Amino acid sequence: MLLRSSQGITRSIIMCAQRYSTMWPTKAYVNGEWCDAKSGKTFDVVNPATGKTIATVPDLDASDVQVAINAANDAFNTWKKTTAKERSDLLRNWYNILVKNKDYLADIVTSEAGKPLAESLGEVAYGNSFVEWFSEEARRTYGEHVPSPNKTKEILMIRQPLGPVGLITPWNFPIAMITRKAGAALAAGCTCVIKPAENTPITALVLAKFAEDAGIPKGVINIVTTSRENTPEIGKLLCESPDIYGISFTGSTEVGKLLYKQCSSTVKRVGLELGGNAPFVVFNEADIDKAVAGAMASKFRNCGQTCVSANRFIIQKNVFTEFVDKLKVEMDKLVMGDGKTCGVNLGPLINFAQADKVDRIVNDAKNKGATIITGGKRALSVGERFYEPTLITNVTKDMACYVEEIFGPVAVCIEFDTEQEGLEIANSTNRGLAGYFYSNDLSQVWRVAKALEVGMVGVNEGIISATEAAFGGVKESGLGREGSRHGMDEYTEIKYICFGNLEY
């Protein structure tokens, strides 16, 4: 089930927040300096649960970000020459500081992203684990010795850092999406220009402050804060700059396609973790109670605002009614509100645009004949960005909820008859990030796991993300993999060295 806030957790974090909230960094971080935009422009950071401004940060433009790119290039000249052991030790220092300040970080995530505190603590632990993991992987960036076909030659392949990279991160996991990218990049010997989402820049700035405290040199990490208005020009600059050698982006497929196109002018390395439309298939052979528990965890974490959130519940005919009835019981237990309030386990949507989108999708389903089992409207009595947990049945292919990624607390249930029909529905999308299914038939488990057209599969499990596992999708859900040992691949180049005219 969902993590639930306890009174003890809430009090501990709030006390920590009261001690440190006035210490939040509110300036951009470029070349080891805390700076304002040259224009003097700023933008507000808003708590989505309360609608109140919690900070004001610089609104950097392209000229400001060019300074950061230059700093990353200068720093790369020395950072690339550090040993793997040196980089490992610095990342471990960073990790230790992050762990020591987990309550402080969780409070910031809840303040910026609206997550319940228990969920924020979970993200902090998850995000920190990437720094720990890549501190260890730094020393395992192995090359290869290949047996030569020629007696007078030897073949070696070594890995070298790609160069300065641009990291563009989303608001829904403001810690983990930075550490998953930056941890790997720094471990490989790359330097970074990081553009966090305009909704959650404070988290990124705090990560930079702790990296500075850990001894990571100036220019290795740069945080450029920009408003939504300036984001397109900053993204274009990072993609087209010849001094940025790779781009890693997590966000919507539409924006990812644009960035991919912009990167073509310099033929740079591109890593894209894009939108999903995750199927959650429940077969007749499933344990329905476990399937419902997995559905709750997958669907309602961060109010449904995750790229791997179950988007379409595809339920086999014989267990459809049982699953829907039990899912409604659990959904009715959800408590909406400010994530810093004890007992709350469902926060707000991030902004009005997202609330409008969810409302549009649900109203479209209503107007086309769907049945709303529970929920179905904004929870204005709780707050302007809150939406009731919503359960929809009698869904048809012409409804937006059948084809669109919802990114909200809406469970769409679709009935199917045969295994083949269920797979056809699951795969009937151009997205392929994550997929889930429940069955206790071993043969079916193997067939379906191979047949689902996704990059990650949860078998009898609703939460699949792990630092040790390769995260990424197929189709239009992205390119490359993050986390795991493969996460280093995105930030290294393989150099082939041939030694010739050897005498033995």
From TrEMBL:
What do the Gene Ontology cellular component annotations say? mitochondrion
- Where would you find the membrane-spanning parts of this chain? none
Where is this protein localized, as stated in its record?
A: Mitochondrion
The entry's active site is E273
Q: What is its EC number?
A: 1.2.1.24
Q: Entry's CDD domains?
A: ALDH_F5_SSADH_GabD (cd07103)
Record-level Gene Ontology MF annotations:
succinate-semialdehyde dehydrogenase (NAD+) activity
Query: Keyword Iron-sulfur, does the record have it?
Result: no
Belongs to which family? Belongs to the aldehyde dehydrogenase family.
Q: What is this protein called?
A: Succinate-semialdehyde dehydrogenase
